Amino acid sequence: YRDLYGEASALARIDPGRIAAQVVTGIGFLGAGTIIRYRASLKGLTTAACLWVVCGIGLAAGLGIYGPALVTTGIGLVTLFFMSRIEKIFSRDSYGTAYVTSHYQEGLIDKLEEVLNKHGVKIQRFCLEKDNTNQEIMAELNLKARTKDIKKLNQKVFEELSGLPDIKKVRLE
User: Fold this and answer.
1) Which of 6, 68, 121, 133 is the most exposed place for a label (fewest CB within 10 A)?
2) Rounded-to-integer distance, Cα 31 and Cα 69, Å
3) Global confidence as pTM
4) Spatial distance between the Cα atoms of 121 and 95, rounded to a whole number of angstroms
């Protein structure tokens, strides 16, 4: 130990590997905290990966290994810059939520699904709530569409859902 850690190893029993292990453990908890489930997808994976990279860069710099730390910093920045551009080119999935209020009727979800399928929109998950006093049913639909022009699709779907019989209210997010 004396050659690697100088006089400190003569005064106390040290193990720098333990420091790195604790840093990795702490960053693991922070990374897990950044990952959240949002509707039908996961958010925060890139942030968690960036935390790991920055942790490695910090440990390398702390050990005085500046060259690999600088190279890793450059690779990380280039990757983040270009991968976001590539993702926008190839990603066509859009997610949204539709809230529909209607008079109670049998087969409401089937009617809604028929309209959505016609426009290439799939229901990922749905939740129904019934109001017995007003004989209304409220549906919350988590939707997935393969399109780049989500505004145009939203307008078409909104108009068609609003035009269904007994539909009182439609809201798209």
Assistant:
1) 133
2) 20
3) 0.53
4) 9
